[in-house]
Amino acid sequence: MSKAEHKVQKKESNGNTNNRRASMIASEHLQVAAVFDTKTNAQNAIDAVSEQTNIALSQVELVESGDPKLSEKLEKNTETIGNNLWTSHLVLGSVGLIIGLICAFLLTQYGPALTQQNPMFTYIALISPSIFIGLFIAGLLGLRPDRNQIVQTVRHAIRNKQVALIISLKQSQSVKELEAVLRPHANDVVAAIK
């Protein structure tokens, strides 16, 4: 298989993954990124998007090499993300504490003689791991590996002196339609959850 055929096959497989994701999640929660060799190609794509779709220009962010607002364009709601991480860690850590307390209480009241004779050690032994498990689950929820695909694609393009478009979709806007408009102009098109 030649290098060009491999690239086409990779684009098609990425498109299938993105379409599956897009069909499962409402469009207002999705963002699409496209990578271009030049700013002219990106501007042509912006013109095509505005003519062929119902996407407003205010939904489109152009990112060039050396853009000082790259992080803001990729992650607009960093404060919301931080609040969600903080809240999830507090809630799931507290849930872990409560579960640990309940399990320790049950074991000290109705469990084997070892746990009934050593209640303090039973509480310590059950509360510590249950809090850790709650915090671990909160951390896993905060990782967002689905989001990493769009961030890495844009950052890689910027490092290679390319231009990227980041388009935040709204309700009733189609990822499939947007990808169809962008693909003829772009080197790569990816979609991810905001």
Structure description:
The chain is α+β, with helices and mostly antiparallel strands and 194 residues long. The chain has two domains: 3-65 and 162-193, Alpha-Beta Plaits, CATH 3.30.70; 78-143, no CATH class. Helices cover 65% and strands 12% of the residues. A four-stranded antiparallel sheet has the order 2-3-1-4, with helices on both faces. Helix 4 (78-110) packs antiparallel against helix 6. The radius of gyration is 24 Å and the shape is elongated. The relative contact order is 0.25.
The SSE order reads HEHEHHHHHEHE
First-last Cα distance: 35 Å
Helix content: 55-70%
Structural class: alpha+beta
The stretches of 5 or more residues where confidence is low (pLDDT under 50) are 1-19
Ordered list of secondary-structure elements with their pairings:
Elements: H1 3-24, E1 30-36, H2 39-52, E2 60-63, H3 70-74, H4 78-110, H5 113-117, H6 119-143, H7 145-159, E3 163-168, H8 175-182, E4 188-193
Antiparallel strand pairs: 1-3, 1-4, 2-3
Summarize the structure.
The protein is α+β, with helices and mostly antiparallel strands and 194 residues long.
Could you name the key traits of this structure?
4 strands, 194 residues, 65% helix, alpha+beta, four-stranded antiparallel beta sheet, elongated, disordered N terminus, single chain, 2 domains, Alpha-Beta Plaits
